[in-house]
Amino acid sequence: MTSSTNPRIVIIGAGVSGISCAVRLLQYGFENVLLLEAEPRIGGRVHTMPFGENVIDLGAQWCHGEKDNIVYELAHKHNLLETTGGVYENYKCIRSNREVVPESISQRLKDIVSDSLVTRQMELRNCNGSLGSYLTNKFYEALGRPENSDIDMAIAREFFENYQKFENSVEASDTLDEVSGRGYLEYWECDGDILLNWKDKGFIEFLRLITKARELANELGILEQHVLLEKRVKQIRWNRNDCCVDIKCDNDDEVIIADHVILTVSLGVLKEQQLTLFDPKLPVEKQRAIDSLAFGTVNKIFIEFPEKFWPDDWTGFTLLWREEDIDEIRGTSRAWLEDVFGFYCVSYQPKILSGWIIGANGRHMETLSEDEVLAGCIFLFRKFLEWDIPEPCNFKTSTWHTNENFRGSYSFRSMYTEEVGTSARELAQPLTIVTSPPLSNGSVASSNALYSQTRCDKPIVQFAGEATSDHYYSTVHGAVEAGWREARRLADFYGVSRNSTKEPKAQL
Ligand SMILES: Cc1cc2nc3c(=O)[nH]c(=O)nc-3n(C[C@H](O)[C@H](O)[C@H](O)COP(=O)(O)OP(=O)(O)OC[C@H]3O[C@@H](n4cnc5c(N)ncnc54)[C@H](O)[C@@H]3O)c2cc1C
Is this model's pTM higher than 0.90 or not? Predict the structure, then answer.
């Protein structure tokens, strides 16, 4: 392909998916590749920032699994990953009267919920209801067995309430009643360690790896000259007669013309903006996929203390509210604290605890001042823990919902998704235009504007991003694969051979 016949490819969003896609297109030999990013930084939901003695990740933090995980495959050989150990298994369960639930009980409760989800997937396959009703039945059924008759029902209930919040954080759902039981299995967990951290570097190290920023010692690596930051796309006009697409950005009269647009914005952004973003509106099947695939919010809270005040063998603790204590905060300005379900240690950060909050209360937290949120967290520490709690010296929360460039954290399969019968595949379908095939010199002859979503001619608007991944949605490896999938689609369209010398293998 020569530069004169190189198609103009615009990628909207410089998160993991957009970046992976751009890198791959350049490796295929496409040269006219431009990334438009609304934020003043690249990375999207990978957001590593300096904090405490090191860095923290406000978004993606761990490489989830090893087998068939492209992030693992790429990072492992550079020795970039390390196990986080059992931080999210060995936590203490603390009641709101400061009682630590004995290990002998908490471990059995943990085993019951883990058994329901991990070893009984066959049962979930035949489940017509929600994940919430499935888990509730399983949990109380197990508790009714004679061997569990010594477990205090109040503690078991408190544990299960808390566990559901944890599981909501995995799904990004507000309640497990909205999560499809069967849909839960659409997500494939990669075998191997599912909590691999990036040592003292944070997840941004992965972007440095794939853009070669580490070797080239510049921030954008091979994407230098290909990224425009603070360029927020407000309209994509995809029905021009000449097979091109017009792109308009906020606060900018300039129209960018592209032969292909690859959209990687979050499903949250699509849900909010699809009606204004596309001219003409998207085909009905695409609108349906956007409306009915689910997207929710999970937020993180990082607190640094002047010194560590918790015992060395604590990896974290979850907050079990006794019924009589939860009433104390319900209906008050502290009610949102109910959905902060636990605080955990952070690798390479000896004085930091990281809390998690889900759902509507997680979104509410984003509207509060930093002082209010911090005061709420300190209230929790003092309510649940027996030690003197020092005043924190540093504090940071994520705000994934309030930020108009994200509108939430990640996607999942809801009961509504199930009912509508749509899929990530539908979301990933490109908008195509019927046209003559690319000429032998690589360019494409234009024809009448005849749009179709099913006839795969020239893809003019393509969709990537984590939510378009069939089985690895809500992850970075899913986002990478989706970016590569769309790069490959263009390579196939232009007849770039899989065996061409620039064809990238998994290695970097
Ligand atoms: C709290 C949290 C924890 C997570 N933990 C993990 C984890 O441990 N491991 C894991 O694998 N995954 C994790 N994830 C999920 C992972 O971060 C995402 O799946 C992945 O980063 C999504 O990448 P993406 O490129 O699809 O989307 P994004 O990262 O959202 O990229 C899209 C980009 O588009 C930009 N954009 C939006 N609108 C416009 C516009 N109009 N014009 C131009 N640009 C626009 C955005 O600013 C953004 O940079 C987590 C996510 C969150 C929020």
Answer: yes
